[in-house]
Amino acid sequence: MSSAIIPSSNSDEQPTTRRIRLLSLHLNPPLDHHQQLQLEACSARAKMDVNADKLSTYLRGKHRDIRERIFEYFSSRPDLQTPIEILKDDYRELCLKQLVALVREAGIRPFRYVVEDPAKYFAIIEAVGSVDMSLGIKFGVQYSLWGGSVLNLGTKKHRDKYFEGIDNLEYLGCFAMTELHHGSNVQGIQTIATFDPLTDEFIITTPNDGAIKWWIGNAAVHGKFATVFAKLMLPTHEKNGVSDMGVHAFIVPIRDLKTHKTLPGVEINDCGHKVGLNGVDNGALRFRDVRIPRDNLLNRFGDVSRDGTYTSNLPTINKRFAATLGELVGGRVGLAYSSVGVLKIAATIAIRYSLLRQQFGPPKQPEISILDYQSQQHKLMPMLASTYAFHFATVHLVEKYSQMKKTHDEQLVADVHALSAGLKSYVTSYTAKSLSICREACGGHGYAAVNRFGSLRNDHDIFQTFEGDNTVLLQQVAGDLLKQYQEKFRGGTFAVTWSYLRESMNTYLSQPNPVTARWEGEDHLRDPKFQLDAFRYRTSRLLQSAAVRLRKHTKTLGSFGAWNRCLNHLLTLAESHIETVILENFIEAIKSCPDANSQAALKLVCDLYALNLIWSDIGTYRNVDYVAPNKAKAIHKLADYLSFQVKNIAKELVDAFDLPDNVTRAPIGKQSPSEAYAEYTQYVGF
Fold first, then answer.
1. What residues are labeled active site?
2. Contact of 601 with 48, CB cutoff 8 Å
C-alpha cells in the first residue's frame, strides 16, 4: 500500500495502536479529491426528485377525505387520546367513549358502507385503527362482525329490525363463533340450537365447558346482542330423535337493553388482561337453555318453518357452511388492509428516527445518520419496499371484494376467498416480524413506551391468529393451488388469481435457459418480465413437486397423513404464490401512476422488493440452475445498491403515507426532526 495513501506513523507508536490505526484506514480509507468528486456525483445521480404530496395523492386514492376527517377529529379531541399508561378497565371505557364520539359526534356512520361501498368502509377502519388499534378492533367487531353477520347472513326482516340500532351503537353486539375447544375448526363447534315446535323457539345450549364461547369481543362489558354460531338440531319423528343440520348463526340477546343486566340463562365472564388490545372487552359466554324466537335464525342460507321443516337453496351441510363462511371473508380483507396501516406507522417512526439519529463517522468529520449505514438500510429499506407492495396488493384485494359484493359471481367469490386468506396470513406475519425489527433498529429509544413499538407489537400480534390462524389460512391457499393444478390437467380453467399458471405452467416446468441464467445486466435484472418469470418459476416448481410428493405419500399414509408429511412444503408454496400476486399488483400499480416522478420512485421500490426476495431464496434458484453464480452475485450487488437508492428518498416515501404526528404519536418519529428530541425530553420531565 503506497505512502501516499497511508500517512507515516510516529516512531514511538505502539504495535497494537499501529494495527488499530491501519485497520481503521482499511475500513475508512481517505479519498483523494477526484474520488470525492466521483462519490458526490454518484450520490447526486442516485437522489430522485420525488414529490411526496403527488405520491400520497396516488396512494390514498378517492377516500383520502374521510381518512383526514377522522384524523382531524381525534386531533381536536386530546381527551380521547389513549395515554401510555392506562388500566384495563379504564381503557375499555375510553375505547367505548372513542367509538361513541366518532359515530355520534363526528358523524362517521360506517354501517351502510359494509355492503354498499366496502372500499370506503375499509378506508374508515384503517384510519380508526391507526388512531388506536383497540378502537379499530372494537369498531370492526361492531360493524364487520356483529353488523356484518346480520347483513350478510340474515334477510330483510333482520336488516329492518337491527340496522339502525347497530349503526347508531344502541345495539352493541358480539360475534360468538370461537369456543374454548374449537377455533379454526368451526365445523367442530359444540354449541347447540334445538328447535322447539311447541313454542316456536330455538333453545341455545352450551353442552359442556369445551363449548363455552371464548375470546368474544364486546362480550365482557358492553355487548347487548351476540351472533351465536351453533349446530342447528331439528326434532324428527323418532322418539327423542334430532337431525343435525350443521352450523348456523342466531341472534341471541345477552343483556337487557334498558338495565344492561345479564339476561336469564346467559352467563358472562371476563377473559381478563391480554398481551395487547386491552381496550377491547373480550369475554366468555355460556348458555343454559336460552330461548330465542324462531325469527332470530339468520336464515339467508337455511330456514326453519313454523312446523319445523328445514329449507335451503343449498343441498348439503358443507355447501351451506362454505356459503356462510364465504360471506364473512370481509373480516380477513379488513385485517390485511389494517395490518398494512400498522406497518406504515412503524416504518415511518423507524425511518424518520434513522434519518435523525447520528452516530460515528469518518475521522475528524461530523457523525453520520444511522440510515447511512448499510446494515440499517438492510433492515429498513426492503421493509419499506414491502410496505408499498402490500399497500397496492391490499388495495387490489379491496377492489375485488367490492366487485364480489356487487356481482356475487361464484368464480370471484372463490378468488377473493383464497386471495384474502393468503394476503391476511402473509401480510400480518410480515408486519409482526417487522415491528420487532423496527424496535431494534431504533436502539434504546425504540424501547421507550412513548415511541410506540411495544404497544404496536403487542396490539398487532393477535392479527396472526384471529379471523383465521395464519398457518391454517396458508394451507387453504395451498389447497386451492393444488385444486387448480388438478383442474388444468383435466382440461379445466384456472381462476383469475392463478391465471399465470394457466398461461405458463409448461414453460416454467421446462429446463432453465442456460443463456438467460447468466445474464447479469442491470436492465435485465430490473426488467419486470425477468422478476415475474423468476417468481412464477419458483411457484410452479413448488406446485408441481408438491403434487408429486402428495401423490406418492397418499399411497402409504392416506390423504391426511400425506398432507401432514408435506406441510412445510405446502406452506412455502402458498407464500411463494402470494409473493407472486403481490409483485404482479405492484407492477400494475406502477403502470397506472399518472405522475412520472412518482412512477420512477415506485419502480425503484418495486425493483428492490423483487430482487431482495429473489436473493433471499437464491438457493432455490441456484439448485435448479435458474440463476448462474455470476448472476446470483449481480442480484445481490444490485439489491444492495437499490437499498442505498431507496434510502436517498426514504423521507419522501414515508411522508407519502400522510400520517400526521397525532397518529404516529412517537416523539422520535415526528415530521419535524428539530422537534423530536425536544418533545422526548419534555415527556420525561425536563
1. 467
2. yes
